[in-house]
Amino acid sequence: MSLTVDLLDPTLYSEGNPHEIWRTMREAGPVHRQVAGTGSEHWAVVGHSVGKEVLHDWKVFTSTRGVLLRPDDNAAPYPGAGKMPVLTDPPRHTDLRRAVAQMFTPRAVEKLGALAREVAGSLLAGLRARGGGDFATDVAMRFPLAVQAQILGIPAEDVPLILDATRRSVDESEHGSFGHHDVMTYFLQALGTERGEAGQNLIDTLLAARAGGLSLSDEEIVLTCDNIVVAASQTVQHAVNGGLLALLDHPAAWQALREGRVGVGTAVDELLRWTAPATHVMRTAVRDTELAGTTIRAGEAVAVWISSANRDAAVFDRPEELVLDRSPNPHLSLGGGMHFCLGAALVRVLMRALLVELSTADTSLALASPPVWHSTWAVNGLRSLPVEVVPA
Ligand code: HEM
């Protein structure tokens, strides 16, 4: 099935996600051929169950050819493939992930809850003291790394440098690879000075895994740090910005949250479903296969459009409505299968903390001027979210 829309046209995303287009596509079928104006081709999976199938079937759908669509050529080799968790298939993926998993268990990250509340509270207090400002740059961008810096092994004085490098690494207009290069150089230097005591921070944990018998090259360690640190600092902001915008657009839902009529935990997952910060993830078929009756050839790119899957009426009741107490909520915003987001528990700790701080204050926020979107198929995020302080 092929619809004429080009999902890689950035202007489609200039005012957020093109949900009307995805609904039309879902109604026509779960799998569509896409040929971008820029030349790259892929199979667009827009339905939830087929999306889940792709994410779980790593034997057929490899991650080693990249996990984000590229406008020119999805089949080109990918730097870092096979050496960092997100770009590696089992069995090596299992080793890389096991080396760091203990740092990100629900139990390990729950300890960051108090710090997350403190950082969120202080950033919001600054915004309120100024009568408002740009929530995206003043709060959402700074918040995640400020909370995670210590466990990632980044001293406070280096946080601005890493924040800038990770921001550049995901900004296509700024030649992302230079940002990645700076993050990796930073961790390569840190590698020379760390002691390798388990549980201290990211690089210590990786070195302890190596000391414990897991063969890990310096390159794998540095690339794994890059994978985790970029994800840790550059994704949560989109969920937080999109989450606040959703609450501003749905005052009754926000009021219910403020009054404790809906739980913060379910609200976080509904805001994740709603915003879907990772708009899609890509895989490449390693052999000919079939998806919902469509033949996929070896070497072809398949993208799971998470933002679309999250609104599939076959799975979600009232999918186009924000239902903060939705439960169960099997959204795909944090992926699925073996590459399921390593930071999932951390995301929930961070978002809960910010939501509580936003919802318990005796003042509230209102939009001061229209938000500005990133206008890309790669992430659903806001560049700017101007807000002003208003009575609660
Ligand atoms: C709201 C924020 C976040 C969203 C929406 C998000 C989304 C995702 C998604 C969709 C994947 C799957 C990628 C794939 O299947 O190819 C993923 C993987 C990953 N995420 Fe997150 N993520 C978030 C925050 C974080 C944080 C805070 C961390 C910090 C530890 C993190 C670390 C990772 C890593 C390392 C992977 C690769 C895991 C693997 O390949 O085994 N993410 N994330």
TrEMBL record:
Superkingdom of the organism of origin: Bacteria
One Pfam family linked to the record: p450
InterPro entries, sorted: Cyt_P450, Cyt_P450_B, Cyt_P450_sf
Similarity comment: Belongs to the cytochrome P450 family.
Descriptive protein name: Cytochrome P450
Lineage start: Bacteria, Bacillati, Actinomycetota, Actinomycetes, Kitasatosporales
